[in-house]
Amino acid sequence: MTLWPSRSGTEQLDGAMEDGSSPASYIRLVHRLIEECILFNMSKEECMEALSKHANIKPVITSTVWKELEKENKEFFEAYTRNRAERASETETETRRRIHNVVSESSSSSHGV
């Protein structure tokens, strides 16, 4: 992946790489961490928050690398986004069903008392 950060991105990369690693190796690290986020079915925003909190990577860096990955892997990310939306819908439907069951059971048991 070729990623040429903006001037502000370069300044952030310089500050983030105090261990002397190159910008390219830092970007590869962020790329690998984003792949891990994807394995956990995280959204871009969730990934940005997780990497900021747990890996001290600025959200703008994660966002920039994510956007480049989206450009290079358009079909994958379209499918990934659809899949996340479908899972969210299924989860919401399942949650409503469970709530309905709990309410129904509660109503049945309270009438029997």
Automatic annotation (TrEMBL):
Organism: Acacia crassicarpa
InterPro entries hit by this protein: CHP01589_pln
NCBIfam families: A_thal_3526 (TIGR01589)
Region ranges (Disordered): 1-21, 84-113
Pfam families listed in its UniProt record: A_thal_3526 (PF09713)
Name of the molecule in the record: Uncharacterized protein
Biased composition (Polar residues): 1-11
Composition bias, Basic and acidic residues: 84-96
Chain intervals with Low complexity compositional bias: 104-113
